[in-house]
Amino acid sequence: MRLTVPQKDFLAQIQKLSAVVPSKTTHPILNNILFQLKGDQLTLSATDLEISLTSVMTVQGEKDGDLAIPAKRLVDIVKELDDLPLTLQLDRHGHVEILSGQGSFHIPGENAENFPVLPEIAVESELSFPGSRLRHHIERLLFATSSDDLRPVLTGILFEFTAECLNLVATDGHRLVRLRDFTQPGQEKLGSLVIPGRALNLVVRALQDSDEEIKLGLATSHLVFQAGDVRIFTRLIDGRYPAYEGVIPAQNENLLQCKRSSLSRAIKQVAHCANSITRQINFSLSENSMVITAEDNEYGSRARNELDVDYAGEAMEIAFNASYIDQMLRHVESDDVVFKFGSSDRAALVLPELNGEEEDFLMLLMPVRLMRS
Questions:
Q1: Which of 208, 226, 235, 168 lies closest to 19, judged by CA?
Q2: Mean pLDDT score of the chain, rounded to an integer?
Q3: b or e along 83-118 (b: 16 or more beta carbons within 10 Å of the residue's beta carbon)?
């Protein structure tokens, strides 16, 4: 195998592939990126056996061949090289030799035959999304997925296709995000599927520079995303997603509206005095007034901040995890944010000031138990 490729383009490709390579594995071959050169077409592949990514790039090919190359070592070397054409070739010891300017680097390779065979998916249904729109949807939901592998269904995002829209839902049991996309109606035959958060994070990272449409190919237990010459395969998460509609309160009639940036700044200031474990901050609400407090009895710290807000409802106190509130505010895309409260022990809704015609976006956050000294 021998090929020449621009350093900058090559680095971008192998960095995408390295995101799939597992940090820990009992199968050492998975630490590699598979290179398959035929003519001027180089196919690169990586997998952790649950998620796979393949990418095709045009190079100056001189000798066809297949080889598996350790991903981390390859990326570490290439990212330090100058933006010059690189030549990769197989030396007589079975190592990959990388030539750049006056430098040369040798990495032990692995037999390509030891690399897992990537899945051949029999696509049963297919649909397309504008790439920027799908990535934007994913970015607004990923933060609310769970990292608890004991509840695998919560580590993914629910894609629920209905006659009216596509519902996207993420929850970790403490917070929930629901986004209704009305640009995708009439797909109810596709039903519901739960896509792993890791795979969706990879879609955002690997396809972040693509303005092309992203095609979703659905099979019984797998899904493939494709944009241009990049294909991402993933297993779907098996299991029933929680009945999320039942936990979204319909009677939260205490309404708060304020500047998102002002509230975010006030919360960050007060949170420095919150308990480092619970991260609890308290909201005290009364007519057009909001007092935010926090304290940490262990260190004797406390903080108080008051905001002028538009609040209509019963005077009440409610407490939240400051980190969760901060994350939610970062995903509100309007200057003003709206909160809908029920009582101190009921979930609060967090929404943008207005939703557009194409989507309906809301977030839900469970309160924490009010703690006082």
A1: 208
A2: 93
A3: eeebbbbbeeeebbbbebeeeebeeebbebeebeeb
